[in-house]
Amino acid sequence: MRRHRTLAVLALLGPFCLLFAGCFLAPIGYALYQSLLKVERSGPLGLGSDRSVFAGAANYAAALRDDEFTGSVVRVLLFGVVQVPLMIVLAVVLALLLESASARWVPFFRSAFFLPHGVPGVIASILWGFLYVPGISPIVKLLDDLGLQVNFLSSGTVLWSIANIVTWQFAGYNMLIVIAQLKAVRLELYEAAKIDGANAWQLARYLKLPMARPAIVLTTVFSIIGTLQLFSEPLVLRPLTVAVNDTYTPNLNAYTQAFVNNNYNLAAAEAVLLALVACVLSFGFLRLVGRQEDE
Amino acid sequence: MKYRIIVASLLAVAAVYFLVPVYWLVLAATKDTTGLFGSNGFWFADPHPIRYLRMVLDYDNGIYGRWILNSILYAGVGATAATLLSSAAGYALAKFSFPGRETVFNVVLAGVLIPATALALPLYLLFNKIGLTNSYAAVLIPCMVSPFGVYLCRIYAAAAVPDGLLEAARIDGAGELAIFGRIVLRVMTPALVTVFLFQFVGIWNNFFLPLVMLSDQKLYPVTLGLTSWHGYTDRAPILYQLTVGGALLSVIPLMILMVVLQRYWRSGLTQGSLKV
Amino acid sequence: MAPAKLTRRTLLTGTAAAAGLALAGCSSSTDEAAAPPSRKPGEKITLAFWSWVPGIEKSVDLWNSKNPEVQVKLEKVIAGNKGAYPKMFAALKAGNPPDLGQVEYQQIPSFLLEEGLTDLTKLGINDHAGKFVDWQWQQGVFGDGVYAVPQASGPMGMYYREDRFKAWGVQPPTTWDEFETAARAIRKADPKSYICSFPPTSGGWFSAMSWQAGAKWFDVRGDDWVVNIDSEQTRQVATYWEKLIRADLVKPEPDQQSGWFAEVQAGTIGCWVAAQWGDAILAGNAANTSGKWRVAQMPQWDLAKPASSNWGGSSTAVLNGSKYPKEALEFALWLNTDPASVDLLIQGGYGWPAAKDAFSGSALDKPSPFFGNAKYNEVFAKSDQLIDKSWKWIPTISDTHRHLGDAITAAIAKKTSFADAIATVQQQTVADLTAKGLKVATA
Predict the structure, then answer these.
(1) Which residues form the ABC transmembrane type-1 domain (chain A) (predicted)?
(2) Does C82 touch chain A (CB under 8 A)?
(3) Do residue C52 and residue B131 have CB atoms under 8 angstroms apart?
(4) Does some domain include residue C364?
């Protein structure tokens, strides 16, 4: 019987664990290994044969010394600090509005808000690109007619133009997760609160918002991870503006190092640093939330 | 009444924000390249929707259709496999006690927090070593792993699969795999649908992994294919209009899917699975 | 077979001879033992070829119809660093590269550093040296090796809208001084228009501007890569454009993308100082302006010493790892020298032929309705004579071009000096090469 169970666990858990090891653990291990090597060149002008040699922490030092890499990390952190809260607030507000008793045409609005999540990031970026480029964008033209000179692609604005693309894509999705959480609350609770004389605002603030907390935490963690992965938006907008280059985000930077500059070892170090930052931030956020809950 | 007006106007403003780009896309798909640059983006200019969309499908021996099929293949097969693997693993973690169980779960949980794109690069290097890059498998295999799916399935199985049911089946002499296949999967259906949808949309929208793994454009999913058209526009201006038309065609099926399946997203998530 | 590698000896003798034309047929490295693999007679093979040149499929089709046993499968890839090179480098690493690739002259050193190109001397390419324009041939020569079959270059000129200049009452400029005066006059005549845009992130364009002014950014000396970006000539060019931007006489924006095309169509940009291959881009993206364009020589720094420049240019290279390098080379040679193929490439707008004497009588030598029925390519034929042919590239050119774009963008935004930006790029470039483990010297 015991052996039977062990076999069952192996059969159920084995396939996943095997693939998980192959697609998560092995690449991390391999990245760690690669990040400790460097290429040594020989021959005149360095054009002879190369070989990989142990480099210690040299690649990490190089990544951390590289203004472009650290700059890109700071940039996405700034992005996250502003965009993630804004988007989550928007998602929660929309969810609460749709769940309030005063809302009409709820299915239409819910679908409309959720629709952009069906547009992949690259395609959303191509689409918004057309709406940002001066001379083509009807939005820029409309604002211009109103006397507002706006450049969505200047070095001061482009980060927020990217934030807009991400918000457009994900606000509705996050909203749906919050709604799902709200729906899970038993109706009697609402009824009881109403009988106690709570108005719509109080109901939202003191009952629904605390109820939605787990969903808000979940969507925030996912958004933090997503922020650190920013890649396709700057990639697509890059040709349209002088303000975005090949190292604009950490991910784009690592991609450029690996595939354009052939610095695989440096790229591996950057990937490891990126994963580290992501883990620290998400764990940190979860612990912060956990501690508040305990209090 | 006052509330109703405020709520309605706020919702309407939000709807405009979310729908205007879609409206632009629909109009833009009826224009040629000159029209895209030269006409008012919010109104028609010499519309030929059918002709232009046919051009999208015909260009380069119909490569666009192939990209769509590839996307369906990657997302369909990848999400199905990921769902099955996640449910089996989640169920095992929830209902069997064995040494190292919590360690496995915590490692998987850490996997949720690692950006997929940070993995794609070393994964490419690794697949490279075993000659797996530039193939369907290079994209499919990583898509079959969903740590978040395992996490959802474990919580769901713990809450929704009654121990009594399992014991009864065992007493009836059913094998463990049969129990999983016939009973557990059925009970877990709402969670499975949720995991499937999460993964399907995730794979469909994925760009970085295929970008890194694939060089043969016959293997491209539609996201990568359209981006390659978009990158080629300066040499072949017709691709501006084809990219826009192709973008519209590619998002229509998924948008319909999203809207139709909304309630499944909710049902799977509501049933106790959101305990972070 | 082991990939051909440069040894010290071949390199040293090579640099000594580099100035002169590689002696046809005198290659000493034809080594029977290292003979490359080849197909058996009658065996049917398919060569993979990655390129982005518009219209090149017509040449490939022509080859395929004539060579049933050696078929070429063309894959269109996104040009340059946005698609083709990352894919080629990745495929090289994976050991399954295409047999042939489109490689720009500026990228050849980068590919050499990754051991990505096949030395074609062993396959007898030197017998064909005489078929190509010498300076384009030299772009693929490193030491004793020849690593690329030259395809086309980009002699520069000035495309301008004759109708708009007339409307503004301004003469097309022939010197950079006149250019500035004209820019000012245009701003006065029509505040919505500019004489041209300045592409801050186009490193290739800016290096071409410096090239015209007599700068020589890179060279090879002994074992060292020489970096001399921060020179008097480069600073002269940088300071000139800085002045125009500060005075709002040119519009800083990326060229050849949707917003720029819209302005070109609308005629709010009067001219484009660009390479010969720009004709196809203008005609393709602004078909409605047909007949209104003319071409003149680039504005000059000194009319007494006329100089032009080159922007872009690329080769057909046989990538290291090709199973059939001999057949691949045969195709590459045919593609870039066969008159019928060259004519098809010209019609597609591939640039200025690397094949000798391809101009007269070809499709280039015909009046074009887009340019008011002028034989506009005569301008580029002249321009081609005025280019300093000794320009060289380095293996980290993508980095340099990015640094240049960043530094100039920052200088524009923060209103700091362009000359300082150039000095920064010089330092960064030296650092890039050093980080690659290469030896660097400054002039």
Answers:
(1) 73-285
(2) yes
(3) no
(4) yes
* Cβ within 8 Å, pair A49-C115: yes
Asked if B237 has any chain C CB less than 8 Å from its own CB, the reply is yes
Tell me, yes or no, whether C181 lies in a domain: no
In a domain, C170, yes or no: no
- Is A24 inside a domain boundary? no
What percentage of chain A has pLDDT greater than the value 90? 55
| CATH code: domain of residue C53 | 3.40.190.10
At C35, is the pLDDT very low, low, confident or very high (cuts 50, 70, 90)?
A: low
Chain B residues within 8 A of A283 when measuring between CB atoms: 113
Domain's final residue, options C331, C359, C382: C382
What total number of domains does chain C contain? 2
| pLDDT level of residue C332 (50, 70, 90 thresholds) | very high
Q: Do the Cβ atoms of B234 and C78 come within 8 Å?
A: no
For residue B262, pLDDT over 90 is answered with: no
Write out the residue range of the structural domain in which residue A86 sits: 66-294
Instruction: Please tell me the distance in Å from B73's CA to the nearest CA on chain C.
Output: 23
Which A-chain residues 37-66 have CB contacts (< 8 A) with chain C? 38-41, 43-50, 62
Q: Do C254 and A242 touch (CB under 8 A)?
A: yes
- Residue-level pLDDT at C36: 56
Q: What is the pLDDT of residue C23?
A: 33
CATH number reported for the structural domain that contains residue A136 in this entry = 1.10.3720.10
Q: How far C223 CA lies from chain A's nearest CA (Å)?
A: 5
- The full length of chain A comes to 295
Q: Do A44 and C8 touch (CB under 8 A)?
A: yes
- Whether residue B259 and residue A115 make contact (CB cut-off 8 A), yes or no, is yes
Interface contact B225, partner A, CB < 8 A: no
Q: Do A19 and B247 touch (CB under 8 A)?
A: no
User: Is pLDDT at C28 greater than 50 in this prediction?
Assistant: no
From the list A104, A113, A274, which residue is nearest B118 (CB)? A274
What are the tens digits of pLDDT across the range A177-201? 888 888 776 667 777 887 788 787 8
pLDDT tens column, B233-260? 877 778 888 999 999 999 888 877 777 7
Residue A136: its chain B contacts at CB < 8 A? 36-37, 41
Total domains, chain A: 1
Task: Identify the structural domains of chain B with CATH numbers, from first to last.
Answer: 22-270 (1.10.3720.10)
Same domain, C42 and C128: yes
Using the Cβ of C257 and the Cβ atoms of chain A, whether some distance falls under 8 Å is answered with yes
Query: Domain residues for C223?
Result: 200-251+394-443
* Residue C52 and residue C141 share a domain: yes
Q: Give this complex's ipTM.
A: 0.90
Residue C343 lies in a domain: yes
All partners of chain C with 3 or more CB pairs under 8 angstroms? A, B
Q: What is the pLDDT of residue A43?
A: 78
Predicted confidence band at C11 (pLDDT cuts at 50, 70, 90)? very low
Residues C75 and C137 in one domain: yes
pLDDT at res. A283? 86
Tell me if B121 and A16 make a contact (CB, 8 A cut-off): no
- Mean pLDDT taken over chain A: 89
Question: Nearest CA of chain B to the CA of A91: how many Å?
Answer: 11
Question: Residue C78 and residue B231: Cβ atoms within 8 Å?
Answer: yes
